[in-house]
Amino acid sequence: MIESLYKLLTSFGYTDPLHPPVTHMPIGLAIGAFVFFVVAIIFKRQQLVITARHVSILALIFAFPTILFGVFDWIHFYHGVLLPAIEIKMILAGILLVLLGIGVVLGSEVKPHNVWMTILYTACVAVVVALGWFGGGLVYGRTGASKPAAVSAAPAQPSTAKPPAALGDATAGQTVFADNCQACHANGQNLIVPTLPIRGSKRLASLDSFVAFVRNPAMPDGTEGQMPPFPADVLSDTQAKNLYAYVTTAWK
């Protein structure tokens, strides 16, 4: 169902993730609730406390589709790989839901100077800032955020030179890379295991070794890693050949 949704969007020319555009709603509303409550404290206006609660209700409502779209993007662009930044964002999203829920329940029953509600609204802002920080790390590849870059800068342009023994279409391989690999291997890196980048990998020594690896990926010691396998019904031999052409020329 999820892949059908992305295919439908692609047919309309939309190939970007769904999650980032909608994050502005719960984040902006959570910050707005905090601002209204602070103003209520400064000017001692009980009505603004009610406004802060109403804004919190809207933030809570928009949080659910935002999280849902985030899960969709995670499955589609990241193949369900639980990177550290994604795991942290999931935890923070859960915390934000709880905080907003408390704010909705208690928001109309307090006076403007209530200390606990001030702490709660401040905590909401802190959580959304943290969500934005880790989300930005995923997009821009900031160190420490372990970014898969399906939504980052465009893939490097391949060289016009044909890689030896591959004779594939590097331009077509760039598309394959963007659709299947860029999330974890932007710019030839490895954002899951940074010590095992694509660049300079022994797996690129030949087309056969490369295809064998993507069909049945494993760690150097033979144990199973987090990279999902790409069987022929997911990545055809032609696509694998084109992908090899791309990754052996893109970052030279």
Q: Summarize model confidence as the mean pLDDT.
A: 84
pLDDT < 50 runs, ≥5 residues: 143-156, 158-166
Largest sheet: none
In helices, the fraction of residues equals: 55-70%
How many helices does DSSP assign? 9
| Secondary-structure content class | mainly alpha
Report the portion of residues in β strands. Answer: under 5%
Query: In one word, what is the shape?
Result: elongated
The run of helices and strands is HHHHHHHHH
Distance between the termini: 38 Å
Q: Please give the radius of gyration in angstroms.
A: 23 Å
Count of the separate structural domains: 2
Care to count the β-strands? 0
In short:
Helices cover 60% and strands 0% of the residues.
Give a structural overview.
This protein is mainly α and 252 residues long. The chain has two domains: 16-140; 170-247, Cytochrome c-like domain (Cytochrome Bc1 Complex, Chain D, domain 2), CATH 1.10.760. 60% of the residues lie in helices and 0% in strands. It has nine helices and no strands. The chain has helices spanning 2-11, 19-43, 46-78, 84-106, 115-140, 170-180, 182-185, 207-215, 237-247. Helix 2 (19-43) packs antiparallel against helix 5, helix 6 (170-180) crosses helix 9 (237-247) and helix 8 (207-215) packs across helix 9. The longest helix has 33 residues, at 46-78. The radius of gyration is 23 Å and the shape is elongated. The chain starts with a helix and ends in a 5-residue tail after the last helix. Mean pLDDT is 84; it is low at 143-156 and 158-166.
